[in-house]
Write a structure and sequence with these properties.
This protein is of the alpha+beta class. It folds into two domains: 8-151 and 322-327, Aminopeptidase, CATH 3.40.630; 161-288, Aminopeptidase (3-Layer(aba) Sandwich). It contains eight helices and 15 strands. The protein has helices at 38-42, 102-114, 131-143, 169-180, 193-206, 215-224, 271-285, 305-313; strands at 8-15, 50-57, 62-70, 78-81, 90-92, 119-123, 147-152, 154-158, 184-187, 229-235, 241-251, 254-262, 290-295, 317-318, 321-327. The strands form three sheets. It has a seven-stranded mixed β-sheet. A hairpin with a 2-residue loop joins strand 11 (241-251) and strand 12. The longest helix is centred in the C-terminal third of the chain and has 15 residues, at 271-285. The protein is elongated and about 65 Å long. It starts with 7 loop residues before the first strand and ends with a strand. The mean pLDDT is 95.
């Protein structure tokens, strides 16, 4: 049965720099991903104005789609969604067809032109978060002239599958070695976050990488969303950390492996395998459907081949994350 579109309207609200973005006027017909909530948007300290677009179904009394866009985020006239978050883009209700998204996208494009924006970039969520929604966007966006400018390789774990049974033989051996060595997974209290952050940063430096967020920003997120942020570790029998992981509950169904690092000297044991298994078990116990292992993209934009291989070896399933772009002028 076709979705009734006669009762759809678009509500647009602007928040100046430094002000929290608008919330929907009508209740959402879906659970918003954490990164797409006004409270999380308010912590994305980018210093730019934010436009919020809400597709409302007046007859049903619900908001059925939403989009937050940051003006001039990547330079004058270059609008982007998200600002400072892992993803942005359009989130929509499960039964919303592609055709119903056109009023929302048209309103966003017209409003952005009025604000002298010449380009809109949308970095979407991994398709595994909402396959039906990703399919609807994959139909509607090209119809409006959007093009995929970046396709990132994303991997996830299905919590219905046994973790150890789907490991590659090499990683299953590492898991056994860590267990035999007495390594254990621990849930750490947030008070240890500064030490955990420094451990992760030091491990990244050993490999020539840096962290994307400051300690102060990570602490602010833990304070604002204590139930959605998780600190896990692998401890050696001496109680010394072998690996540390910061995870984010992006929704009731998704745990996101945000920062993961292990000591370089323990590469032969690969304690990260045990730690990801701990996150998988935690997600299962909390009735989540999947663990998002994230993308593996280098600063150059090229895929990080060794990291992609590692995620596949963990039993990771592929799920693309697309960045769309449209020129508005």
């Amino acid at each position: 049965m076709p979705y009734p579109t006669t009762s759809l309207r678009v509500y647009v609200a602007e928040a100046p720099p430094g002000q929290p973005p608008a919330a929907p006027r009508l209740p959402l017909a879906f659970e918003p991903f954490l990164f797409l909530t006004p409270a999380h948007q308010a912590l994305q300290a980018h210093g730019c104005a934010t436009l919020a677009f809400f597709l409302e179904d007046e007859a049903a009394g619900y908001t059925v789609a939403q989009l937050y866009v940051v003006l001039d985020f990547e330079g004058q006239g270059l609008a982007r969604s998200p600002g400072q978050a892992s993803f942005g883009g359009v989130q929509l209700a499960q039964n919303l067809p592609a055709a119903a998204l056109h009023p929302l996208l048209a309103a966003a494009e017209d409003t952005l032109r009025q604000h002298r924006q010449t380009r809109l970039a949308l970095r979407g969520y991994p398709a595994c978060y909402d396959p039906a929604g990703a399919a609807a966007l994959g139909e509607a966006l090209p119809q409006r002239g959007y093009q995929v400018v970046l396709e990132e390789q994303n991997y996830y774990l299905d919590t219905r599958r046994d973790y150890a049974a789907h490991l590659a033989s090499s990683e299953r051996r590492h898991l056994r070695q860590c267990q035999q060595a007495g390594f254990v997974v621990e849930q750490e209290p947030p008070i240890l976050l500064p030490l955990a952050y420094e451990f992760i940063a030091a491990c990244r430096r050993e490999r020539g990488y840096a962290l994307s967020l400051s300690l102060e920003r990570v602490q602010a997120l833990f304070r604002a969303f204590p139930q959605q942020h998780l600190l896990l570790s692998v401890r050696q029998p001496s109680s010394e950390w072998a690996a540390v992981l910061i995870a984010i509950r992006a929704s009731r169904q998704v745990f996101y492996d945000f920062y993961l690092a292990s000591a370089l000297r323990l590469n032969s044991l690969s304690p990260s395998v045990l730690l990801v298994g701990g996150l998988h078990a935690f997600a299962q116990a909390n009735e989540a459907a999947l663990v998002d292992l994230g993308t593996s993209t280098l600063p150059s934009g090229e895929p990080n081949a060794p990291l992609l291989h590692f995620k596949r070896s963990l039993g990771g399933l592929p799920s693309p994350r697309l960045t769309w772009q449209k020129m508005l002028a």
